[in-house]
Amino acid sequence: MDAVNGVVKLSLEGYEAERVAADAVNEEEVDLSRRAQWLRAAVLGANDGLVSTASLMMGVGAVKDDAKAMVLSGFAGLVAGACSMAIGEFVSVYSQVDIEVAVRKRREKQRAAAMVEEEELGKLPSPFQAAAASALAFSVGAVVPLLAAGFIGSYRLRLEVVVAAASAALVGFGCAGATLGRAPVVRSCARVVVGGWAAMAVTFGLMRFVGAKAL
User: Fold this and answer.
1) I need a labelling partner for 120 at 20 to 30 A (CA). Which of 18, 146, 157, 192 fits?
2) Tell me: the pLDDT tens digits for 30-39?
3) Do 88 and 48 form a contact (C-beta atoms < 8 A)?
4) Helices (H), the chain
5) Cβ neighbours of residue 134 under 8 Å, at least 6 residues apart?
6) pLDDT tens column, 66-79
């Protein structure tokens, strides 16, 4: 009988060890997945900042050859875009947190559990962190065309440098996004670069047309 109990005890201990190991692996996978999502969101935010600011500066450059006007418009786009991204991310993540908290409370009631899941609630995403990360990522991308145009006096050369700097940064962001999303690098970079070129070209062309007709 003691031998049987010993075998049962060893089996239970083995099962418990396997369960603990499986839980640890699952937690690690979830943690890595969350980190990947944060990194991917940062890359996308930086890409948005780069494309929108570069396009805005190209649009202003289409009607004014003044370097100060281009830089000021780009800086205004950086501030406005970073604030917009931060507020949007804050509201979005806060709504997500409210939904997850409500779902967990409903599950607790269904299970008739009296315990408070403070540890799980602590694992929820922070709206303030998300807002700060989104604003920072947008700003990092927006700084690229600002730095490229800020020290060049020649009008034509300034536009060319903005496009070149934005293109190089888009290649980097495209590679980073493809790596994090496990997508084909060349195809992903091509989509990002062509999309950025299209945004800058459309903005430049429309502003040149409007400036010629209305101003």
Assistant:
1) 18
2) 455 566 666 7
3) no
4) 2-63, 67-111, 118-122, 127-149, 155-181, 185-214
5) 41, 45, 85, 86, 88, 89
6) 888 888 999 999 99
